[in-house]
Amino acid sequence: MDASGIRKVFDLAAKMKDPINFSIGLPDFDVPDVAKLAAIDAIKSGHNRYTQTQGIAPLRERLRKDLSREIGRDVGDVLITSGVSGGLFLAMLATIDPGDEAIFLDPYFVMYKHLLSLVGGKPVIVDSYPDFRFRADRVEKAITPKTKLLILNSPSNPTGVVMSRQEIADAVELARKHDLLIVSDEIYEPFLYDEANGLASPATAYNNTLILRGFSKSHAMTGWRLGYAAGPEPVIAAMTKLQQYTFVCAPSPLQYAALAALDVPMKDAVAAYRRKRDLVSEKLSRKFEIVRPGGAFYIFPKAPAGITASAFVTKAIENNVLIIPGNVFSERDTHFRISYATTDEKLAAGCEILCSLA
Length: 358
Fold this sequence. Notes:
Low-confidence stretches: none
Structural class: alpha/beta
CATH superfamily of the largest domain: Type I PLP-dependent aspartate aminotransferase-like (Major domain)
CATH class of the largest domain: Alpha Beta
Radius of gyration: 20 Å
Largest sheet: 7 strands, mixed
Helix content: 40-55%
């Protein structure tokens, strides 16, 4: 297991003078003031000790109520996790025995492959090129008697692709047919740019779905490490037990801040990122082959013909633009990831440099 390619570039950025940094999924807006003040108040009020392993009751109850209304059924107990990354780790610890398999699409979020290896599981990676869509026939060919999990990520990191309602229905049909647990990584759920009716979640049609969401992207709380999980009672119970021996609990005062953050509308931030999506798509499409993202804040262009993505990334970094090679997220080295979570000015300047290099 190599060190994270994203973190390598992130560390590089810290040593450079004013780079155009498209490398990491770090929102460029700040935590809402309401949440900051709630965190300060919680600290001053003495909420600095361990909470229950599963998190504070007011936050769990509010999330259960909101999620149940959205999904259309009672989602059951909610577990507060140390970020969605913590939720993913607990989910795999709870469900994967040595030799068990989990399926996900290529390109994929970097942690899936390595977390599975850590717990003794086998990642089974299904190609989704060239358009990064879910194809049930490709996925079904990868299912074996050892398959336990089908991991979905919509909106996707690194592609920004949002699964359609038909694709979700196809995934649910496969999971039901083969008795799989769907792990639905929905951390970018608020960032939808073309969906008027909200995110299509498999949990609305399939009870054997583990929903993973959090506050890192929606409210810019990346350093606060707050996520949550809801799903089948035996899975949540096992994850809660395992949290006792790993993370212990999510940060105590920040759970109270997250409760306050739930009442802060973030529509302006989503609208701003929709404009950024439009800007970067328009500029890059002049020189690169792209799939227009429908959510999150990433785009995954194809490197110019005749050069690997890694080589192109090296050229970009030499020109003060930090991007991530696609082989960090993929079995291929043909594309690169841009995070457009930065200012419009830097977006425009960086895109011009990349187009000139192409």
